[in-house]
Amino acid sequence: MIDHMGILVSDRERSKAFYTAAFAPLGYKLVMDGPYGSGFGVNKPDFWLADGAPKDHLHVAVQAANRAAVDAFYEAAMAAGAKDNGPPGIREHYHPNYYGAFVLDPDGHNIEAVCHTPE
């Protein structure tokens, strides 16, 4: 099980603004911030941003409580400057209730919100 993860971002202030907006519908917020990085989470930081030059683009999926939260994530991310990488919808090739949305963050990382329940 993953406890936390971190990604390199080229402009941490820009990325903090993006993730603050995109993660708000999922209940994630900035919970720690300092020279070492910026940590987002619900009760503890589990998604970290660190200064650096991204060498590869990552895929990160964040669990959403329901499909409405996936939709809200997608809308908030797009309003914050994301690029569409797959609008909200069923991805039956994973399983019948897989409902996800995909966006590219300011550094091109593929960020997904996903709900696995039928609502």
Automatic annotation (TrEMBL):
SUPFAM superfamilies: Glyoxalase/Bleomycin resistance protein/Dihydroxybiphenyl dioxygenase
Signal peptide stretch: none
Residue stretches making up the VOC domain: 1-116
Top-level taxon of origin: Bacteria
Keyword annotations from UniProtKB, A to Z: Dioxygenase, Oxidoreductase
Keyword Oxidoreductase attributed: yes
Statement: the UniProt record of this protein carries the keyword Oxidoreductase: yes
Molecular function terms from GO: dioxygenase activity
Name the record gives this protein: Glyoxalase/Bleomycin resistance protein/Dioxygenase superfamily protein
Protein source organism: Asticcacaulis biprosthecium C19
